[in-house]
Amino acid sequence: MDVAKNNQWSLSSRTYNALRETLILGSFAPGERLLLDPIAHSLGTSITPVREACIRLVGEQALEFKSGRFAMVPELTHSRYMQLRLIRLELEGLAAELACGRAAQSDVDELSSTHRAFVAAERSGDFAEAKRCNRAFHFRVYRLSGMEMLVSQIESLWASMGPILSLFYGMRDNDYIGAAEHDNLITAFRRGDRSAAREAIQQDIIRGGAPILRYLNEKEAAA
């Protein structure tokens, strides 16, 4: 009985991690429905662990339940975005500051390599790869903080932020290509400048969010 329970928990946990990762990578857009049956089929599991994963993500405010058949990514509003941004600025800024004091040269070299791949993907229009590289870059930084609880909180925020990134890459007036603040962060790491590392991550969030805020302001004005 205990083995069966452990297996079920492991399956539910794997399903949750897989579904959360799809959200983080921006595979779904704000307002999009997530039908439980197709998700279960794609993950090769039954609908029960998918429903359990969705319930956990609803608790983290990354999803909403609309019926027993599907969950939904919350619609993007000005209030929701600003709450996410404010919390991200504090938590991710802290993680970058702490990481700066712990990063070895090999870590900085790896960040540089990931950033180059990110820039190349954006410039070629391969936005799926760009989002993957961006995620890898940021969480390489955050894990260097050595604070797993902090990283876990940031990952939960990114489950809500990922769908917004899918919107970001579809915007025609997106003028923040290449994420120059990544370069500033790398420079801060090389110098061991913790304050500059915090500032670089925070500016990355602010500059990346500028077209999203313009979109939301225009949407509210039209309404």
Keyword list:
single chain, 223 residues, mainly alpha, 9 helices, 3 strands, 74% helix, 4% strand, globular
- The 3D shape can be described as globular
Major sheet: arrangement of strands: 1-3-2
The number of helices is 9
How far do the termini sit from each other?
Answer: 56 Å
Mean pLDDT level: 90
Order of helices and strands: HEHHEEHHHHHH
Strand content: under 5%
* Backbone CA Rg: 18 Å
Helicity range of the residues? over 70%
Low-confidence stretches: none
Structural classification: mainly alpha
Q: Sheet with the most strands?
A: 3 strands, antiparallel
User: Tally of extended strands?
Assistant: 3
Topology of this structure?
Elements: H1 2-24, E1 33-35, H2 36-43, H3 47-59, E2 64-65, E3 70-72, H4 78-100, H5 105-124, H6 127-143, H7 148-168, H8 180-191, H9 194-222
Tell me what the structure shows.
The chain is mainly alpha-helical. It has nine helices and three strands; from the N terminus they run αβααββαααααα. The longest helix is centred in the last third of the chain and has 29 residues, at 194-222. The protein is globular.
In short:
This protein is mostly helical. It is built from 9 helices and 3 strands. It has helices at 2-24, 36-43, 47-59, 78-100, 105-124, 127-143, 148-168, 180-191, 194-222; strands spanning 33-35, 64-65, 70-72.
